[in-house]
Amino acid sequence: MDEHHYLIRGGIAGRERMRVVGRVMRPTTLRLLERVGVTSGMRCLDVGCGAGEVTFDLASLVGITGHVVGVDLDETKLDLARGDAEQAEVGNVEFRLGDVGGGLGQEEYDVVYARFLLTHVPDPEGVLQLMIDAAKPGGEVVVEDIDYGGTFDHPTTDEFDRYREIYVEAARVNGGDALIGRRLPLMMTRAGLERVEVEVVQPSGLEGEVTVIPALTLENIKATAVRHEVASGDEVDRVVDALYSIARDPEAFVASPRIVQVWGRKPGVATVGPSGRP
Ligand SMILES: C[S@@+](CC[C@H](N)C(=O)[O-])C[C@H]1O[C@@H](n2cnc3c(N)ncnc32)[C@H](O)[C@@H]1O
Q1: Any atom of ligand 1 within 6 Å of the Cβ of 74
Q2: Largest CB tally within 10 Å, which of 2, 9, 29, 90?
Q3: What pLDDT band is residue 265 in, cutting at 50, 70 and 90?
Q4: What does CATH list as the number for 3-265?
Q5: Cα 78 to chain center, whole Å?
Q6: 99 close to ligand 1 (CB < 6 Angstrom)
Q7: Which residues form the Methyltransferase domain (predicted)?
Q8: Mind listing the pLDDT tens digit for each residue in 177-233?
């Protein structure tokens, strides 16, 4: 899959949106990584790492005795991430260019993680299997992804409802599933993972960056939505303007998509490094 077929605009513009999303999601992602038991000395893989928003947090959790690999197909974002790693002198991360479909290695990692990736791929079960293959026996496979059915504003506006509709449909015609979150627990259990645990989080607020994410997201999927005739460019622009007004309104409450966090253990006995759970 090349960037042309990726739902959300990539490169520098895409990275800026992911920075906002990354800041909003960081507290709940850090709590997830803590619950999973990511700790010093581990080897981790961040699949669909983008510009490394979570890769760098994984790197600081595993410390200098650990190692983190980030994989993505967007070379621009990876270059920016490599630049950030160099500037901050983070020596235990490595960013590799690649499509997940090409495989992720065999039994190499204590933790294999993906955030907001499976929603975009046409064969999420297949990608999950590749993630499981890459985990060591006893290793943890961790996924967090969206369920767009849960995003809302209050007081409700037609424009926000239309935004949700455009996103879900644009994802669908592009081969993805914007409602994948609700499918993840069963998908991971059926894939053979043990001790599967689930948490649902939903960043929301009357103000702050969380309220701007809908406008930024719709701006970034405009090309895909128009290309697939899900909406006209004029309609997208009109809805984006309305979403920015909602973001500026201190009396408008905005709830992001629900994020379903699921993690489970690959069967087998951990041979090297901490397993994260007894
Ligand atoms: C929404 S971003 C999430 C980035 C990062 N995981 C985060 O949460 O900040 C999804 C990322 O998945 C990447 N991606 C999509 N399909 C991919 C594929 N088939 N192989 C590798 N990366 C892919 C995109 O390039 C993009 O950077």
Answers
A1: yes
A2: 29
A3: very high
A4: 3.40.50.150
A5: 15
A6: yes
A7: 39-165
A8: 999 999 999 999 999 999 999 999 999 999 999 999 999 999 999 999 999 999 999
For residue range 95-108, what is the model confidence (pLDDT) as tens digits?
999 999 999 999 99
What whole-number distance in Å separates Cα of residue 85 and Cα of residue 200?
31
Domain ranges across the chain: 3-265
Q: Is the CB of 10 under 6 A from ligand 1?
A: yes
Position 4 scores a pLDDT of 44
Q: Hey, which of 3, 5, 6, 96 would you mutate to test ligand 1's pocket, going by the most ligand atoms within 8 Å of its Cβ?
A: 6
Which residue lies with its CA nearest to atom 11 of ligand 1?
48
- Average pLDDT value for the chain: 93
3-state SS of the chain is: CCHHHCCCCCHHHHHHHHHHHHHHHHHHHHHHHHHHCCCCCCEEEEECCCCCCCHHHHHHHHCCCCEEEEEECCHHHHHHHHHHHHHCCCCCEEEEECCHHHCCCCCCEEEEEEECCHHHCCCHHHHHHHHHHHEEEEEEEEEEEEEHHHCEEECCCHHHHHHHHHHHHHHHHCCCCCCHHHHHHHHHHHCCCEEEEEEEECCEECCCHHHCHHHHHHHHHHHHHHHCCCCCHHHHHHHHHHHHHHHHCCCCEEECCEEEEEEEECCCCCCCCCCCCC
Q: Rounded to a whole number, what is the distance in angstroms from the first to the last CA of the chain?
A: 38
CA of 208 to the centre of ligand 1 (A): 25
Q: Could you tell me if 142 and 112 are in contact, meaning their C-beta atoms sit under 8 angstroms apart?
A: yes
pLDDT of 6 over the 90 cut:
no
